[in-house]
Specification:
two-stranded parallel ribbon, two-stranded antiparallel sheet, mainly alpha
């Protein structure tokens, strides 16, 4: 058996007497909190159009008389986050069903069984973005600017979420006899099948590539590439991440469904195509508006 260069052998649980909490669960909770705080900070710095002001006050709910609004409302963010959850769950479940289409075609009732299977990340993000945008529209908020708010927190959450998976031994890739291989040892209930077999650290590779995407997006925003605040930065970030996820999927254990590609890679290609269309449409609208 090949020996992994990096071997993890620690208790993945925080223990309090007879009770125990998975380190990965705590890490994910911390990631969610960090993402929400970051989104709130960005929303507080994101300007809104004058036409979106409420009469007799500012958009942040204070009594401002004739004072013009200047940033998005953080209380709206709470409603948008609540709206994101069902879309993320439905999208993630749809993605999981597509990944295991043969099984669910033979067992349709299992599709709606929450105790069976799981969620798929890419379509969970798409579904959450759709329902979050719908709630933002119902609140008469600028959807494009809320998407602009979301891009950095979403990419940060994906990257840190992948790191948290490594803490619990989840997300291991295919077997690898090489210097990048990792293995999880000991009697612990790790999150991957056969964790002791040296394998690609797919979750950490995706975290690293997501960090590169995040860095590119932040540099683009800092350079003023998305001054129109119409949400194009979100579509660009999602498109770049779809490319990164497509590349990482070559290290996964998933079965191939079309040539050298697995089902998740096909989903990534579809998301990339949709983002390119949305970027083109948004750019065209911006050009017509300036004209």
């Amino acid at each position: 058996m090949p020996i992994a260069v990096i071997a993890f052998d620690f208790d993945p649980y925080v223990r309090f007497g007879d009770r125990a909490i998975w380190w990965q669960t705590l890490a994910l909770a911390a990631v969610v909190l960090a993402v929400l705080v970051l989104a709130a900070l960005i929303a507080g710095r994101m300007p809104v159009a004058v036409s979106e002001a409420s009469e007799g006050g500012t958009r942040d709910g204070t009594s401002g008389g004739d004072e013009e609004p200047w940033h998005l409302r953080r209380d709206d963010l709470l409603f948008i986050v609540l709206g994101i959850v069902p879309g993320a769950v439905l999208g993630g479940r749809l993605g999981y069903v597509l990944l295991h289409l043969d099984y669910y075609a033979a067992h349709p009732p299992a599709i709606v069984d929450p105790a069976q299977g799981g969620l798929q990340l890419s379509l969970a993000i798409v579904g959450g973005a759709l329902t979050g945008a719908f709630i933002a529209r119902q609140l008469e908020g600028p959807v494009g600017r809320w998407l602009q708010v979301a891009v950095v927190p979403v990419l940060l959450g994906i990257g840190l979420g992948k790191v948290s998976m490594a803490v619990g031994g989840a997300g291991q890739g295919a077997a690898l006899n090489g210097e990048w291989a990792t293995a999880y040892l000991g009697p612990w209930p790790w999150g991957s099948i056969a964790p002791a077999i040296p394998a690609y650290p797919s979750q950490l590779i995706e975290a690293a590539l997501t960090a590169l995407v995040l860095t590119a997006v932040v540099i683009g925003l800092a350079a003023g590439r998305s001054r129109s605040l119409d949400g194009r930065a979100f579509f660009v970030g999602l498109a770049l991440w779809a490319i990164a996820r497509f590349a990482v999927a070559f290290t996964w254990r998933d079965p191939l469904v079309l040539g050298p590609l697995d089902a998740d890679q096909l989903i990534s290609m579809a998301i990339l195509a949709a983002c390119l269309v949305l970027i083109a449409v948004s750019s065209r609208k911006a050009q017509l508006w300036r004209a």
